[in-house]
Design a protein that fits this description.
Layout: H1 2-22, H2 25-30, H3 34-69, E1 73-81, H4 88-99, E2 103-112, H5 117-134, E3 138-147, H6 149-154, E4 159-162, E5 167-169, H7 182-187, H8 212-237, H9 244-247, E6 252-254, H10 255-261, E7 266-267, H11 270-281, E8 287-290, H12 297-301, H13 314-336
Parallel strand pairs: 1-2, 1-8, 2-3, 3-4, 3-5, 4-7
Antiparallel strand pairs: 5-6
């Protein structure tokens, strides 16, 4: 703590020194020293830049020393929001957090109404494979909804915690937005002709009437997808497939209802989820939540990657570490002199 105060003190001296020099601007202008005037403008610009990054620097300096004084256990936190069509981002950070030995557990904060079937299955399988290799606890905390593909992903985790009124379930498959628009365009005297090879190629073409064979094919695809979904849920939630008409069939439930059916493990919020994480990962100290980085503020202008809310970016951490070291060396030199 003493070193932190010394470091901040030196930064304060530097800022006040630069600001003090700017008071001479008016005098310099009177003397016609325009070159020095532009130097002062440059210093003012540097101050403005510094003030933009000062909070991050100070937080980084504080973190450098607080971590030594108050050790915390790291837990990865991944937010899954909205409808999903791509698994790359989530799988990348799942791999990163599972493979990082300093991260003791992972929490998925879920607010997802569904996804493309392949995307949900890809994330689901990725979690299962990583769990087998690294044996690290991972749980899901639902905010408002965990349905369809979102629930598929949650089933791969070790526990699902949800507020009582959140929406859970929708275990099923669907081809959405299969509009039949042939008559509509014909009313506007628009002609449409699809040239294809294979009688099923226009099955999802909205401007061509769907044949009975095509509809049967699409239904078979959905049935296969649904069976895979239901089997995975039954296996990992320890439910009976014979009773799937109770907990599947596209039905949605409140978390209170889902708890009775075995679709969730506990009713609660972030506090309970944190306690479960600590219990599963054998964590006694406080938790440091590690989030994937996001672009914010000044770094967006330069295409850089900024820090998450609780964790500074590696660039500022490295800079802050070097700054602390430099200030400490200068302090020791001045003390010896």
């Amino acid at each position: 703590m003493k070193k932190t105060l010394i470091s901040i003190f030196f930064i304060y001296i530097k800022i006040t020194d630069i600001i003090g020099k700017t008071k001479e601007i008016y005098k310099k202008i009177k003397k016609g020293d325009l070159m020095n005037f532009f130097d002062y403008l440059k210093n003012i610009f540097i101050i403005l830049i510094f003030l933009q990054i000062a909070p991050i620097l100070i937080r980084s300096i504080k973190n450098q020393y607080s971590k030594m004084l108050m050790p915390r256990s790291k837990v990865g936190l991944i937010r899954i929001r909205g409808i999903l069509y791509n698994s790359d981002y989530y799988n990348r950070y799942l791999n990163k957090f599972f493979k990082d030995p300093s991260i003791k557990a992972i929490m998925i904060k879920m607010d997802c109404p569904g996804s493309a079937s392949g995307t949900a299955q890809a994330i689901f399988n990725e979690i299962l494979m990583l769990k087998r290799e690294y044996d690290k606890p991972i749980i899901t905390l639902v905010e408002n909804i965990s349905a369809s593909g979102g629930y598929y992903i949650a089933c791969a985790t070790d526990a699902i915690i949800s507020p009582p009124s959140a929406i859970i379930g929708s275990i099923g498959s669907a081809f959405q937005y299969l509009f039949q628009l042939k008559e509509f365009i014909e009313n506007y005297k628009i002609k449409y002709k699809a040239i294809t090879a294979g009688k099923y190629k226009t099955s999802t073409d909205p401007f061509v009437d769907m044949s009975a064979d095509q509809e049967t094919l699409l239904q078979q695809v959905l049935d296969s997808s649904y069976e895979q979904f239901a089997e995975d849920v039954a296996k990992h939630r320890k439910l009976s497939l014979k009773d799937k008409e109770k907990w599947a069939e596209g039905k949605i439930f409140t978390a209170s209802q889902a708890l009775e059916l075995g679709l969730v493990d506990s009713l609660g919020s972030a506090y309970l989820a944190t306690q479960i994480i600590k219990e599963k990962a054998l964590i006694k100290e406080e938790i440091e939540w590690i989030k994937p980085p996001r672009k914010t503020g000044l770094l967006k202008w330069f295409g850089g990657q900024d820090a998450s809310e609780e964790e500074d970016s590696s660039m500022f951490n490295a800079f802050a570490t070097k700054l602390c070291k430099f200030l400490e060396e200068r302090y020791l030199q001045n003390k010896l002199m």
